[in-house]
Amino acid sequence: MKIVIDVRCITGRMHGIGRHAVNIINCLAQIDRENKYLVLIRKQAIENFKNLPDNFKIKTVDIKPYTIAEQIMLPLILKKEDFDVYYTPNYTAPLFLNKPVIFTIHDLIHMLYPHDYTFFHRIYYRVVVKKLAKKCYKVLVVSNSTKSDVIRLLEVPSDKIIVNYNGVEERFSPGDRKKSLEYVFQRFGLNRKFILWVGNEKPHKNLKNTIEAFKIVSNSISDLHLLVIGAPEQKYQTESIDEKVHFLKISSDDDLIALYRSAEALVVPSLYEGFCLPVLEAFACGCPVLTSDRASVPEIAGDSAIFVNPEKPGEIAEAIGSIITNPSLKESLKRKGIERAKQFLWKISAEKLLGIFENIKQP
């Protein structure tokens, strides 16, 4: 069988979907030496795939996702290839392929919070993504929460949808906290007790209420700081508190792992998540997690995190305080999180995907 995997979604910035794509391909490369793969990438992603085995072929296709060119030019390129199935870990694919199409939907945030996105993206999801979901062979989703959204918003039958969870990379693991604190000091010049927020600038990530909660906590825990990863400082200048809120730019996973290992807690009270990979990464590094009681997060976190109403800064603040001031609670959350993370492995996700490929019946 020859399988096309379209990972043009990978850019220089390793966001959640890009991380998903890289790990799926690398794990497939480890477990499958029989099938042949054609991996479609853009130039900036080549460095992620340097040691693939001989049954994997890389093809550079510099066509941006979510474009007219994708719908017109990509089918012409693929017409020259003899393949059996097309898979993309992104939301988008050519509508008119005469081969089985499988694609992953990570969330439907563009439809649930449409005002945070451009008119083009809103229309794309309501028209193209909806048609793709109905037409394709299988729709993969990363949580049962997203599955419910796909059934409700895209009107896709339940039996066409397969839940295939994300995983966490092995390098995200517990480590020497003292060494991690030294790393953070040398790398960022910080030697203060801190909580960590990881996300992007989108409003549903709820950084605003996180900062509001931190304002409340800092009144009673004066030596606590908040480190923000992934959101631009200029957008939140009015929310920040002098020198206690730090907007950091990280350059590698080494930075992120050291921050997880050093933090008093990861605080990510999102309004909506299709999966929330930072929760899993923090778990794996032994970092206590405070998160939202909404959408997929309770499904992913199980009983290993503290859950709050993300719309109530006071409740978030109280929960932060309980972690900081209660060593036994903190230790319990660390222990539970490490065990919970072991249930989510990229190898498991890749094996499930490979099984779907091999079960396809050709016309």
| Average residue pLDDT | 91
Rg calc:
21 Å
Name the beta content range: 15-25%
CATH topology of the largest domain: Rossmann fold
Give the low-confidence spans: none
**CA distance, first residue to last residue:** 14 Å
The biggest sheet, with number of strands, parallel, antiparallel or mixed sense and barrel status, is: 7 strands, parallel
- The CATH architecture name of the largest domain reads 3-Layer(aba) Sandwich
CATH superfamily of the largest domain: Glycogen Phosphorylase B
Walkthrough of the structure:
The protein has 13 helices and 13 strands. The protein has 2 domains: 2-167 and 345-358, Rossmann fold; 177-341, Rossmann fold. Helices cover 41% and strands 16% of the residues. Strand 8 (193-198), helix 7 (207-218) and strand 9 form a beta-alpha-beta unit. The protein has helices spanning 16-31, 68-79, 109-112, 119-135, 144-154, 177-188, 207-218, 253-262, 277-284, 297-301, 313-325, 327-341, 346-358; strands at 2-6, 36-41, 56-60, 85-88, 101-105, 138-141, 161-163, 193-198, 224-229, 245-248, 265-268, 289-292, 306-308. The strands form 2 sheets. It has a 7-stranded parallel sheet. The radius of gyration is 21 Å and the shape is globular. By secondary structure, it is of the alpha/beta class.
